[in-house]
Design goal:
Layout (H helix, E strand, L loop, with lengths): L1 E3 L2 E4 L1 E2 L3 E8 L22 E3 L17 H4 L16 E7 L5 E7 L17 H5 L3 E5 L4 H5 L3 H7 L5 H16 L5 E11 L1 H9 L11 E5 L14 H15 L4 H6 L2 H19 L17 H6 L8 E6 L16 H15 L6 E5 L16 H5 L11 H20 L21 E3 L1
Helix pairs in contact: 7-9
């Protein structure tokens, strides 16, 4: 039984660690709260039962190889879809006290995913003395739709999914001590869109002093990468297309459309908007509030948090083709090194940079985008692949590095220095294979 700011919660006792599922960190963003900043949750009545994962945001289910067979055959993906999706999950060592906190943001192109995917689990973090938190946030049209009507109403629009992440971070900062965590030692980390989210959170003043460290996996970069600076006006132009698809004349009408119907119509909207956007467009935008400029522009100005960083990618990551023989041809590999060298140029501590290069056994997909998740989560046993002893050793090594970094800002263990920071004079990249 844990006493939070909003009342008592009870979870699952696993013996040596405790798990709390589906804790609401904000009011359900439905009805009049659709396309508004998240609101503080109501206090619990009695004891909140945190023993079940909650619904994820509306999204398309299924995927293409290798993600379909690895991640999307999970029964969790059969759970109901809902706008009511602002929940977080916590794994904590038994009788924890002053533990570092790992704040995980899932990927999925800002269009899919959840905080309870089968490859995610905090047990191995708890085993190493770290409290693990996974969160959910609004996705797609529910999380990132911008429109002039919404901007006129609130002074900004879009970015709701990122504001959800900030609300979850604030909830953790204010409540994690009750679970045995140290609110002044929170590491924010994520992969793909989760890494892009992390780069947003370290670039905005709205997160204040709540982030102590950050890890950016296959999405964080400088100069070259997945990021695209999205002006608010451009994002609003796509919102106007959605207005036309819906056939509405007022914001009130948009909010009155049932969520399932809204999501159904989003397919036609994406078909019209994607060719104009030429790629991802329901993403964080530069609204002057969350982001005052582009990601690389903000780095140039030194307007990112001065904290320890880890950043990296996989050998066969997004935007990598078989003819790229030189690692520096890989955009995220090059962008990760540039990220660290930029920190150094700003007079900051350079980052620890990695490249995950283990070809996963069982097929010929290689070290694909997201392949490292099984390893750094310690969940190999949930996957169909014919793992070898080497894979379990690599997973343990990565878990040690990730949790060491969360504890001290250095992925090396006590007295070790194998993983050097990446500098201009010594552009060291730790190969994880």
């Amino acid at each position: 039984m844990i006493q939070t700011k909003y009342g008592k919660v009870s979870g699952i006792d696993h013996g040596w660690y405790e798990e709390y599922r589906g804790i609401p960190y904000a009011k359900a963003p439905v009805g009049e709260l659709r396309w508004k900043a998240p609101q503080e949750p109501e206090p619990f009545e009695g004891v909140y039962d945190a023993t079940a994962f909650q619904a994820k945001c509306w999204q398309r289910t299924g995927s293409s190889p290798p993600w379909d067979k690895d991640f999307y055959d999970d029964p969790n993906f059969e759970k109901p879809l809902s706008e009511d999706c602002l929940y977080l999950n916590i794994w904590a060592p038994k009788e924890a006290s002053g533990c570092p906190v790992a704040f995980w943001i899932h990927g999925g192109a800002f269009m899919g995913g959840s905080g309870a995917e089968k490859e995610f689990d905090g047990a191995e973090y708890a085993r190493r003395g770290v409290i693990f938190v996974s969160i959910q946030y609004r996705l797609g049209i529910f999380g990132f739709l911008a429109h002039p009507w919404l901007t006129e109403e609130s002074g900004f629009s879009g970015n709701y999914g990122i504001l959800d992440q900030i609300a979850a971070l604030k909830w953790v900062y204010e409540n994690i001590e009750a679970f045995g965590g140290d609110p002044d030692n929170i590491t924010v980390f994520g992969q793909s869109a989760g890494a892009m989210s992390t780069q947003t959170l370290i670039s905005t003043p709205l997160t204040g002093h709540m982030i102590a460290k950050a890890i950016l996996q296959s999405g964080g970069s400088y100069g070259v990468g997945l990021h695209r600076d999205m002006p608010l006006k451009e994002e609003e132009s796509y919102g106007k297309i959605f207005e036309e698809v819906l056939g509405v004349s007022f914001l009130k009408e948009m909010r009155e459309i049932p969520a399932d119907k809204l999501f159904e119509l989003s397919g036609a909207f994406m078909g019209k908007a994607m060719p104009l956007a030429k790629g991802l467009f329901l993403t964080p935008n530069m609204d002057g509030r969350l982001l005052s400029g582009g990601y690389y522009e903000l780095m140039d100005k030194g307007e990112i948090k001065d904290i320890p960083y880890m950043v990296g990618s996989t050998k066969d990551d997004i935007m990598v083709s078989p003819d790229m023989k030189d690692p520096m041809e890989r955009p995220l590999y090059k962008g990760s090194i540039a990220f660290s060298e930029k920190l150094e140029a700003l007079g900051r501590k350079p980052a620890f940079v990695y490249s995950f290069e283990r070809d996963l056994p069982g097929d010929a997909q290689g070290a694909w985008h997201s392949a490292e998740l099984w390893y750094m989560m310690g969940t190999l046993g949930r996957c169909w692949r014919p793992w070898e002893e080497h894979d379990y050793v690599l997973s343990a090594r990565m878990l040690d590095c990730w949790t060491n970094f969360m504890k001290t800002g250095d992925p090396n263990g006590a007295g070790e220095a194998a993983w050097r920071p990446c500098t201009k004079a010594d552009p060291f990249v730790m190969v994880l294979d």
